[in-house]
Amino acid sequence: MSTTLTRESSRAQQAWQLLESLSDPEIPVITLRELGILRDVREGAQGLEVVITPTYSGCPAMGQIEDDVKAALATAGLQATVVTQLAPAWTTDWMTEAAKDKLRAYGIAPPHACASEKSGGANVVQFAARGSKPPVVHCPQCGSSNTTETSHFGSTACKALYRCLDCMEPFDYFKPY
Amino acid sequence: MKAPVDYLLHLADNALILGQRNAEWCGHGPILEEDIALSNNSLDLIGQARLLYQHAAEQIGDGATEDTLAYFRDVPDFKNYTLCELPHMPLMSATAQGDRDFAMTIVRNFLYSSLMVLVWDQLQNSKDAQLAAIAAKSLKEVRYHLRHSRDWLVRMGDGTDVSHAKAQTALDQLLPYTQEFWTASPQESAALANGTGIDMAALQSHWNLIVDEALQEATLQRPAAGGFVPTGKQGVHSEHLGFVLAEMQSLARQHPGATW
Questions:
Q1: Is A131's Cβ below 8 Å from some Cβ in B?
Q2: How confident is the model at residue B47 (pLDDT cuts 50, 70, 90)?
Q3: Are B237 and B244 in contact, with CB atoms under 8 Å apart?
């Protein structure tokens, strides 16, 4: 019994190591684990299970991520079921500091901590009210705080478009979610 | 505990049909940023619809999938609010062509998002754990949709004479359709009874607050209440839904089971 357990957990450990190399298809500088998409690797009733969670509901990368996970495990002869789990809902607060630094170096301003409460729909009304001050987003190129939002929505669902008023470079801001 | 299938379909159909409508702007946005914003909005809505259809399909069994639910049901099977299926243009008969009116798009997204921040917030406590999980994700997304549409509502309402007039016309035409939000359909009553749904009528005063505050800031007048109450969520739709489905479903019906 104990030998079985040891073998199983070492299999999961091996899988973790293999999956460590996988990066997000749209943001190749950070790994799925750092982003918080890769939630767990465990022994299930049907064998090895890899648990992933989507960022946004409509994230088109989920299919690709599932394929990438299976392909990475297959290189070591491992097979796994990929389980998509929605709760707890993914949040940018799970992103590690190291991942935020990598994002910045890549030219994407990392997300602020989530201001929105878990509950309460009304806070969004104040959020958008005139005269309210959104948190300062620093330019990932020159570090300036003199930036402005060009569009709430950017090149992918998780990003907004910003522009630096000092170095004049446009850049992406990873939205708090 | 599972939410009634028809209740899940009601929530999913709202998201799918509005997502399909907003996707009509893809490649045609008034400016590039809005093209991207509305496409992102659609992506979120269609993503929410997929999660809800997958959840419903598991309960239906018998070969049902998210695709059979989206592509192989007909008009009377759809349970979305009539508001979601209307074209982006001042109302006219279905076969008439008109230009897409951005004000209609914004006002509709504002009215719907103002409702859904409240609905998803409450549904986080649904006794259907999967529905609660979908609600928690959708709430984060709809907050951005509300922020976006409210921002534009104020900009247009408190903007030029032309933008104000367009926003007011859109509001006058669309607001009466929201009366459907507050009357309980059989599926909503069933969901409320088994603890998986919510009491929609109880949300009305909070929704009014969100809407009235924004309209005041936008210097828009709220049209008088009353009149016809639409019945889309009970499967009795306007003539417009058939045209939406014809476009959305034609590929899947022509090539059933096609993959790429």
A1: no
A2: very high
A3: no
CATH code (residue B213): 1.20.1260.10
Distance CA B184, CA B206 (A): 17
- Closest of A120, A94, A102 to residue A176, by C-alpha: A94
> E strands along chain A, which residues?
38-44, 47-52, 81-84, 108-109, 147-151, 159-164, 170-174
Whether A175 contacts chain B with CB within 8 A: yes
Tell me what pLDDT residue A127 has. Answer: 43
CB contact under 8 A, B217 and A129: yes
- Whether residue B259 lies inside any domain: the answer is no
- Provide the shortest C-alpha distance from residue A162 to chain B (in Å): 11
Q: pLDDT of A70-102, one tens digit each?
A: 999 999 999 999 999 999 999 999 998 999 999
3-state SS, residue B113? helix
A64 interfacial to chain B (CB closer than 8 Å): no
Q: Is residue B111 part of a domain?
A: yes
- d(CA A142, CA A167) in angstroms, rounded, equals 7
CA distances from A165 to A139, A148, A170 (A): 9, 7, 9
For B64-88, give one letter per residue: b (16+ CB within 10 A) or e.
Answer: bebebbbbeeebeebbbbbbbbbbb
Chain B, nearest residue to A127 by Cα: B147
Domain-embedded: residue B10 = yes
| Contact residues, chain A, for B29 at CB < 8 Å | none
> Domains in chain A and their CATH numbers?
2-90 (3.30.300.130), 95-174 (no CATH)
How does DSSP classify residue B231?
Answer: B
pTM (2 decimals)?
0.91
Residue-wise pLDDT tens digits, B135-152: 999 999 999 999 999 999
Mean pLDDT of chain A, nearest integer: 85
